[in-house]
Amino acid sequence: MVETTTMMERPYYSWWFDSHNSPRRSPWLQSTLTELEKRTKAVLRLIEEDADSFAQRAEMYYKKRPELITMVEEFYRAHRSLAEKYDKLKSDPSSRLSTPLLSPMSSFKYRQEKLVSFEDDIYSEAHDSDVSEESEIDDPEREDEPQVDEQMDEVSSRDFAAETMRLKVEIERLREENRVQEQQLMQKDEEKREASRQLRLAANVSSGVFEAETMKLKEEIEKLKEENKVQRQQLMQKDEEKREASRQLSLAVEVSNGVFEAEMMKLKEEIERLKEENKVQKQLQKDEENRGASRELSLAVEVSSRVVEAEMMKLKEEIEGLKEENRVQQQQLMQKDEEKREAIRQLSLAVGVLKEENMNLKKRISITKESSKKWNPANEFNKFKGIFFGKLFNGFPKSQTGVELARYE
């Protein structure tokens, strides 16, 4: 079970070495390589962790960045110290490294320095016999120095050379990995700055265009409201004029009816008077014995009857004329009422079309900026407004109005 867990935690890289767990090595070297492996795995975990979204990756990046920089700094300081020690050993092969007593879990920097010093001494022993006789490494655990010397004597020169080369390859790999990581970090920082700049630029541009379009639409809406207000006032004024004309016509009809009734009353009174006179004349005719006087009276009655009939015919003609005039006025009133209803209907329809056109303009503007550049709602609205106001007070032909409205719908 422990071996399975170790295999699962082991990173899969071609440059990874697992041969440092050798019983021939000193405890200090084992602990140093273990600490190096632990630090390397920690760096790899920070690099390989990923997130589902861009925001999560950015958050992880800014959280891990200080820790990763600290680890890179430790690697840098350790490698710099190793290089200085290596150069010192090459220039002074007889020098010995004396270190204080340290535990296996001491600082990473000191272990790296000891590791490079140890590998440099081994490399010198394998390739230069003179240097090998003079180079020595002191183990931090001073009480184990005889045991370390015995282990060093048991290892062959070939094993030392192979181990030294492996360690050098590992160090070079780590340096290359650090350099790649630094380049990736710099590239990611640049990409983040560029993305942030582009986002701010796009947000500023979009905000400016949206505010301009919004102000333009607000101005158009205010203009439409003002025009609708003027149209309502004009309609109210026309309605008032039509009501006044209807009131005058009704008054004229009432006056005509009053005059007609007065004339009829006068005619009735005249007829009653004539009937009374006729009755008196008949009575006188009966009383009179003279036929000549009776004929004259009859002639007078006949003349009076003809005069009355002529007056009646004249009055009837006047009555018919008044009736005809009243009928014509009523037809004119009905026609004006129909025109008023038609104008109101056309105005309501036009207002509905204007509202729908305003809604369409808002939708088109919110869909895409390209469509707003190709299609100018102000030109279409001005064109429709010109047609509407041109036809509003001159009358709307039904066929032409339907075609115009259908075209704008």
Tell me what the structure shows.
By secondary structure, this protein is mostly helical. Helices cover 84% and strands 1% of the residues. The chain has a two-stranded parallel sheet with strand order 1-2. It is rod-shaped and about 190 Å long.
Write a short abstract of this structure.
This protein has 409 residues and is mainly α.
SSE topology sketch:
Elements: H1 2-9, H2 27-48, H3 54-91, E1 96-97, H4 108-127, H5 129-134, E2 136-137, H6 145-154, H7 157-287, H8 291-367, H9 369-374, H10 377-392, H11 398-408
Parallel strand pairs: 1-2
Helix pairs in contact: 2-3, 2-4, 3-4, 3-7, 4-7, 7-8, 8-10
Number of discrete domains: 2
Number of strands: 2
Structural class: mainly alpha
- N- to C-terminal distance: 77 Å
Annotation field: number of helices: 11
Please provide the ordered H/E string of secondary-structure elements. Answer: HHHEHHEHHHHHH
Mean pLDDT: 70
Based on CA atoms alone, the radius of gyration comes out at 60 Å
Helix content: over 70%
Shape verdict: rod-shaped
Characterize the largest beta sheet: strand count, sense, and whether it forms a barrel. Answer: 2 strands, parallel
Low-confidence stretches: 1-11, 94-112, 122-146, 396-409
% residues in beta strands: under 5%
**Main sheet: which strands, in order across?**
1-2
Biased composition (Acidic residues): 131-153
Biased composition (Basic and acidic residues): 237-246, 276-294
GO cellular component, one term: vacuolar membrane
Region (Disordered): 126-159, 227-248, 276-295
